[in-house]
Write a structure and sequence with these properties.
Elements: H1 2-5, H2 15-46, H3 64-93, E1 102-109, E2 112-117, E3 151-154, E4 156-160, E5 165-171, E6 176-180, E7 185-189, E8 195-199, H4 205-211, E9 214-217, E10 228-230, E11 234-235, E12 241-243, H5 251-259, E13 264-269, E14 274-277, E15 289-295, H6 297-310
The structure holds copper (II) ion (CU).
Residues 176, 277, 279, 281, 285, 288 line the site of copper (II) ion (CU).
């Protein structure tokens, strides 16, 4: 069932539970669809006009339909009480401790995701609405000792693999929805409220790219090649690498490959993990995309150190 549904790859520790839930719900819906389909077809034929049916004011005398409805209600009850509520409770009640997790703030706005890291000291600096400007989208007060080392990125959430991540969500303007399909996370973002979500990435972005690698035609790829990255080296007839692995397939790169006689390319999305806004939040809603990069712990530390350098 899950293969049939075409869900995106799962990169989150709790993702399998969510997927199972989606699978079970679809099985019930499938059974109902078949049942109703058979009943509908039966009624169409059995009570067709040419049989000159006369209305029967008594109706059905058996209790079969009642029992069936009870069975469906019981099954739905099991789905809610047995599957959905425990899963939801686990997501909203069993938060990891801050000290065991990466904690970031995400401030949504039309139409961007501002990501606020506490920096080396582990404390978020104060923010003030009067300090909000084009250069300082979250109004961070750099004169606050806690705020000096804070890192702020736009549309870029970088996290390490294998460690819980807590995201404290808030919005500067309207309601947005923080959705990362590959991490099986989706939460509305409400102005004036701070809503936490948490997840634990179990795959690095690099691994996900490998898992999503496919062969695409260079002539008729069916996807926007400019969002794709080559997953192997491509050489010309003299075995000189013309397009190394990890190149973005810009038109000139594609031209170069075609000129060397290639018709297909092994490629994967450059940024497979996106934060999509899942609330229609305004005219620019479609371009409210953030990118999640899941790195190895070492690469994550290196990234933090590099970002800290920009502050000096
Ligand atoms: Cu939005």
């Amino acid at each position: 069932m899950l293969d049939f549904l075409g869900l995106p790859p799962d990169a989150s520790a709790h993702g399998a539970d969510i997927d199972n839930m989606i699978g079970v719900v679809h099985w019930l819906m499938f059974a109902l669809f078949i049942g109703w389909g058979i009943f509908f077809t039966y009624v169409l034929i059995r009570f067709r006009r040419t049989r000159h049916q006369k209305a029967d004011y008594q109706g059905a005398k058996t209790h079969a339909s009642t029992y069936l409805e009870i069975a469906v209600a019981v099954f739905e009850g099991i789905l809610i009480i047995g599957f959905a509520v425990p899963l939801w409770a686990q997501r909203v009640n069993e938060f990891p401790e801050d000290k065991d997790a990466i904690v970031v703030r995400v401030v949504a706005e039309q139409f961007a995701w501002n990501v606020h890291y506490p920096g080396a000291d582990g404390f978020f600096g104060a923010t003030d609405v009067n300090l909000v400007s084009a250069d300082n989208p979250i109004g961070l007060d750099r004169s606050d000792p806690d705020g000096k080392d804070d890192i702020v990125t736009i549309n870029q959430l970088v996290v390490p693999v294998g460690k819980p991540v807590i995201v404290r969500l808030t919005s500067k303007d309207v309601i947005h929805s923080f959705s990362i399909p590959l991490l099986r996370v989706k939460q509305d973002v409400i102005p004036g409220q701070v809503i936490p979500v948490w997840f634990e990435p179990i795959e690095t972005t690099e691994h996900i790219r490998v898992a999503m690698t496919k062969t695409y035609s260079l002539i008729n790829p069916g996807v926007n090649l400019m969002t794709m990255m080559t997953m192997q080296d491509y050489v010309d007839k003299d075995s000189v690498v013309i397009v190394p692995a990890g190149s973005i397939l810009f038109p000139d790169v594609v031209e170069q490959l075609v000129a060397s006689g290639y018709t297909e390319v092994r490629a994967a999305p450059e940024t497979p993990m996106e934060i999509a806004c899942a609330q229609l939040c305004g005219l620019g809603h479609y371009r409210m995309r953030g990118f999640v990069s899941v790195k190895t712990p070492e690469a994550y530390e290196a990234w933090l150190a590099e970002e800290a350098l920009y502050l000096q």
